[in-house]
Amino acid sequence: MFVRRVEDVPVEQVAAGSETERQILIGGDTGPNFQMRRFIMQPGGGMPRHTNTVEHEQYVLRGRARIGIGEDVYEVSAGDVVFIPAGVPHYYQAANSGPFEFLCVVPNLPDRIELAPEDS
Questions:
Q1: By C-alpha distance, which of 56, 54, 49, 57 is closest to 114?
Q2: Kindly report the CA angle at 14 between 72 and 83, in degrees rounded to 5?
Q3: Inside any domain, residue 68
Q4: For residue 58, what are the domain limits?
Q5: How far apart are the first and last CA of the chain?
Q6: Rounded distance, CA 69 to CA 49, Å?
Q7: What is the dihedral of CA 49, 52, 58, 60, to 10 degrees?
Q8: Is residue 108 part of a domain?
Q9: CA distances for 19 relative to 38, 66, 80, angstroms
Q10: Residues 40, 32, 38, CA angle at the centre, nearest 5°?
Q11: Which of the four pLDDT bands, split at 50, 70 and 90, describes residue 118?
Q12: Burial 60-95 (b: 16+ CB within 10 A, else e)
């Protein structure tokens, strides 16, 4: 068990993203079943269309973004909850009005990320 401040958790750039950072708040070394990650996308930033081998359960903390999940596109903002099944192509595009921030909980399992063609 542990308690720590989010300011004490290292921030890393997401290589595949644009203007996107992440923090591993709870990782495999501290949580046996799940990882909790915090993503921050600057205005206009985002992540390209991709797939993951694990599901994503997300809670939007602040800002607005367009999220594509499979064939559907959603406009999300603070207070929204998002579920992305494993293997489903998805992308994020933060609005230009301010930073977009969300928590992402995933199973503590190996996760392979693959960029997806735009037409999938």
A1: 49
A2: 30
A3: yes
A4: 10-114
A5: 42
A6: 9
A7: -20
A8: yes
A9: 14, 15, 22
A10: 5
A11: low
A12: beebbbebbbeeeeeebeeeeebebeeebbbbbbbb
- Give the torsion sign (CA, 4, 113, 85, 19): positive
Q: In angstroms, rounded to a whole number, what is the distance separating the alpha carbons of residues 34 and 85?
A: 15
**Confidence band (pLDDT; 50, 70, 90) for 24?**
very high
Query: Residue 94: which residues within 8 A CB-CB, separation 6 or more?
Result: 19, 41, 42, 43, 44, 45, 46, 63, 64, 65, 100
% of residues, the chain, pLDDT over 70: 98
Q: What is the CA radius of gyration of the chain?
A: 14
Which residue in this structure is represented by tokens 């929204």? 80
Q: Mean of the pLDDT values across residues 2-28?
A: 94
Q: What is the CATH number of the domain that holds 87?
A: 2.60.120.10
Task: Tell me, yes or no, whether 2 lies in a domain.
Answer: no
Number of domains in the chain: 1
Mean pLDDT taken over the chain:
94
> Which three-class secondary structure state does DSSP give residue 52?
strand
